[in-house]
Amino acid sequence: MAAARTLRIGLIPGDGIGREVIPAGRRILEALPASLGLKFSFVDLEAGWQTFQNTGAALPEKTVDTLKAECDGALFGAVSSPTTPTKGYSSPIVALRKRLDLYANVRPVKSVAPTPAFPDPIDLVIVRENTEDLYVKEEKTYDTPNGKVAEAIKRISERASFRIAKMAGEIAVRRQNVRNTTGDAVGKQAMVTITHKSNVLSQTDGLFRQAARAALEAPQFKNAGVKIDEQIVDSMVYKLFREPSTYDVVVAPNLYGDILSDGAAALVGSLGLVPSANVGDGFAIGEPCHGSAPDIQGKGIANPIATLRSVALMLEFLEQEEAAALIYKAVDGNLAEGKLLSPDMGGKATTDQVTEDVIRRL
Amino acid sequence: MAAARTLRIGLIPGDGIGREVIPAGRRILEALPASLGLKFSFVDLEAGWQTFQNTGAALPEKTVDTLKAECDGALFGAVSSPTTPTKGYSSPIVALRKRLDLYANVRPVKSVAPTPAFPDPIDLVIVRENTEDLYVKEEKTYDTPNGKVAEAIKRISERASFRIAKMAGEIAVRRQNVRNTTGDAVGKQAMVTITHKSNVLSQTDGLFRQAARAALEAPQFKNAGVKIDEQIVDSMVYKLFREPSTYDVVVAPNLYGDILSDGAAALVGSLGLVPSANVGDGFAIGEPCHGSAPDIQGKGIANPIATLRSVALMLEFLEQEEAAALIYKAVDGNLAEGKLLSPDMGGKATTDQVTEDVIRRL
Ligand SMILES: CC(C)[C@H](C(=O)O)[C@@H](O)C(=O)O
Ligand SMILES: CC(C)[C@H](C(=O)O)[C@@H](O)C(=O)O
């Protein structure tokens, strides 16, 4: 059993339905059985478009400082973007990933039930590099006789590519262990698929590919039987939709990972199901993959599942696997029964009703 | 009727199954009815990995010169890439697009029949910018105390963004005219969806978005009722898989267009169905979207449909709409009957049998 301790969790609801799902995340943490020997304390923190409009900063220093000084982990909801470029505004979650060196964005995607299009279970995880690539946001614009030209830097480092592939390998091993323990899908090949576009970007994506291979060729992965696979990013999107059940762990540079994880989410029915964790050394922020969804904001019908799973994912990376497993199982129970589902899943349940149903199953 | 003339077509089979499908493209051009008043002459040209191994150049100057000096259009098969980075080798199709300023890559994607996953017809076209973005391939690598770092330039110009969006608008109008003429899907909203990631890349993708909007706000499009829509690229991939039938024309910078078109191809069952044309002012190269497929090379079972449709697409951009329409109809007839299909479509027919069946239907 994990060591008993109190974990301090920063709650950053952000905008829109972020403000409706993050409270659900808090509720499930508070509802975990006492037998786990885990306690939680919470601190409310601000970030987002509303915060920017109120304070002039989308990510106040106080939020960063409090996370660094006091917290073990955090939950981040979603933020709205301005509809036109706004001076001084830039995405707080992108900034947070860099400021806290949360170098991995881990996004597990799992199907609820077989469908005609996908009769075989989908159970894969996208491991997205979270600090560099085009997300360094080094851009410039200049005038030419033919009009404006803008340039952005795509930066790929050997170090970041190596460490993200290493994490992907570790996740593949851990998933294999879970399969062997639970008896679920035993025999599924542990595999890491390296995604890149080195046929065009021979230096940047070539470096990603090479560093990722080097990381995955380490004895710890070879001995565990982790297969190294590769896909060019366009072909990866194609295969993800043609044969998703053949994939296990997919590792990708930041931007491809962003695109692939939305694509994978589409396969399992709703972005409202897909969690993520932004992970660094000893720190994790759980973040549902969906956006702030202004169209349904305030209606109390946002799907809390992505957030509840993000809570579990955060706990996994804080080495509280037992607590994580309880939440996953409760969520799977709610989905398998299929009686209390939110509207994005074809149901009628509210955020609160879904959350309460999951809590009942803990 | 289009003016009677002889069109000279360069044939660049490339590698692998490129050598099997390009002859099918030639056959269908030769089989077009004489009543069209069209003649064709052909010139065989080399490019690709095999050519690189034989001559040291993946795209010999002679190929470029002949296309420029003699040809009205061309057909390009597919090329293999070396499995490890090879000094001096770089993709000949990427080079050709730039050398001939074929600034648009047009990729129509159309479903064959309703499926449980997609009951509504899918009929969309990806219009991909074809000359810039990360495909400028300006890369450098340097050493740091923490290992190698590589950088690539993503370059977006106002001029290229404007002209690709203008072409997307023109295609939307043309498609609407075809719907009104054929009576097919009349009432489908003519729409261009601008894809970008300006929430992160405010300058580069911001410029693409802004220039594309400016192009599409022109009276010629407004008066024709072309709606301007926008999607962030990750959300675009999600929506493409959730509600593909709602899209009409999707315009995107080079790399997103590359990824989106493979994604769209997955929706309709096989890359073997999806054509493309690389289009510049007065010149077009038809190119099937699939690769060189070394796994089935030499077996005579490659699906020629993507190439036959690419022939039609090339003809459209050479203003031979009547000939193009005949080929599209013949292909649709073959697919609708579903008796002579290649193995990627679940059938048993060879490349030749499919080609002959389509020719019979001209
Ligand atoms: C909102 C946006 C900046 C963000 C990203 O691109 O990383 C989002 O798409 C995500 O995937 O978390
Ligand atoms: C082979 C490769 C260079 C090419 C590209 O990225 O453009 C291909 O994927 C395509 O879509 O034509």
UniProtKB/TrEMBL annotation, chains A, B:
<keyword id="KW-0560">Oxidoreductase</keyword>
<keyword id="KW-0520">NAD</keyword>
<keyword id="KW-0479">Metal-binding</keyword>
<keyword id="KW-0460">Magnesium</keyword>
<dbReference type="GO" id="GO:0005739">
    <property type="term" value="C:mitochondrion"/>
</dbReference>
<dbReference type="GO" id="GO:0000287">
    <property type="term" value="F:magnesium ion binding"/>
</dbReference>
<keyword id="KW-0028">Amino-acid biosynthesis</keyword>
<dbReference type="GO" id="GO:0047046">
    <property type="term" value="F:homoisocitrate dehydrogenase activity"/>
</dbReference>
<protein>
    <recommendedName>
        <fullName>homoisocitrate dehydrogenase</fullName>
        <ecNumber>1.1.1.87</ecNumber>
    </recommendedName>
</protein>
<keyword id="KW-0457">Lysine biosynthesis</keyword>
<comment type="similarity">
    <text>Belongs to the isocitrate and isopropylmalate dehydrogenases family.</text>
</comment>
<feature type="domain" description="Isopropylmalate dehydrogenase-like">
    <location>
        <begin position="8"/>
        <end position="358"/>
    </location>
</feature>
<dbReference type="Pfam" id="PF00180">
    <property type="entry name" value="Iso_dh"/>
</dbReference>
<dbReference type="GO" id="GO:0051287">
    <property type="term" value="F:NAD binding"/>
</dbReference>
<keyword id="KW-0597">Phosphoprotein</keyword>
<dbReference type="InterPro" id="IPR024084">
    <property type="entry name" value="IsoPropMal-DH-like_dom"/>
</dbReference>
<dbReference type="GO" id="GO:0009085">
    <property type="term" value="P:lysine biosynthetic process"/>
</dbReference>
<dbReference type="GO" id="GO:0004449">
    <property type="term" value="F:isocitrate dehydrogenase (NAD+) activity"/>
</dbReference>
<dbReference type="GO" id="GO:0006099">
    <property type="term" value="P:tricarboxylic acid cycle"/>
</dbReference>
<comment type="pathway">
    <text>Amino-acid biosynthesis; L-lysine biosynthesis via AAA pathway; L-alpha-aminoadipate from 2-oxoglutarate: step 4/5.</text>
</comment>
<dbReference type="InterPro" id="IPR019818">
    <property type="entry name" value="IsoCit/isopropylmalate_DH_CS"/>
</dbReference>
<dbReference type="GO" id="GO:0006102">
    <property type="term" value="P:isocitrate metabolic process"/>
</dbReference>
